[in-house]
Write a structure and sequence with these properties.
60% helix; 91 residues; single chain
């Protein structure tokens, strides 16, 4: 299994079954923080296609859901509480 590198020319190996669609693999890469360009190149898809997918509500929801799964739902609450306390807000 390879690493997701920020360098656009770096090879990328995804730890997903080839039965998973390119669109689903793009969602995983985007949820992990990759750009449309890097995701497109990694999946042999034009980056403009990935950008177009990002504009659809269902795809956006999938990426958001994956991000929440990656960081955990509780982390979102912790982040909100930390942000509030840094701003002096009482919650």
């Amino acid at each position: 299994m390879g690493n997701v590198n920020a360098h656009a020319d770096a090879p990328l190996v995804l730890p997903l079954s080839p039965k998973v669609s390119r669109k689903e693999r793009a969602a995983v890469l985007l949820a992990l923080g990759s750009s449309s360009t890097i995701a497109g190149r990694a999946l042999d898809v034009d980056p403009s296609t990935v950008r177009r997918w990002r504009q659809t509500p269902g795809f956006k929801a999938t990426v958001s859901d994956l991000r929440l799964r990656l960081i955990g739902h509780d982390s979102v609450g912790v982040l909100a509480a930390v942000t509030a306390s840094e701003n002096g807000d009482a919650r």
